[in-house]
Amino acid sequence: MNSQIWWFVARSSGIIAWGLLTLSICWGLFISTKAVAKASRPVWLLDFHRYLGGLAVVFTGVHIAGLVADNYVVFGWSETLIPYASEWKPTPVAAGIVGFYLLLAIEITSLMMKHLPRTLWRWVHRTSFVLYFMATYHGITAGTDHENQWFRVAALASVNIVMFLTIVLILAARKARVQPARPSPRSLVDAAARD
To answer: The pTM is what?
Structure first.
């Protein structure tokens, strides 16, 4: 067995977790902007979003376990779970740790969504933007693959896609607030009958 197997597990699972997080955020924004069918929103669209988020949690756990099992850079559980406990690239590693806790908070509140006030769930869910940028910063600055040209292109492309979808969501929400609700044909008939 290769002596660097855990290092490869940590690296690959970290990149996969970041990719799944990116896909989950993009898919959530895609659903939120109503870019999909406006009349009906099939359940599988939301289930796929949840599935991507859950897989991101699993691969982040594999990433952390791989770092602890590897012996190239010594990471114990405290260095992987407590911000600034690591002496190796403390700020980028801390960003990854805080991002992990945000990921857990988002996933747990999403699983408990029916039992939580909608405003609390929405507030926690909006931290996914902070999570995404912290995870991207962590991957670019703490990861050893930051020199990889393909990773740089993927990171730049994902940031642009997330920003574009976020702008579309903001503009769609603003447009919905500005436009008055259209009266239904039935309400127009009822109003005419009363006059």
So the answer is: 0.83
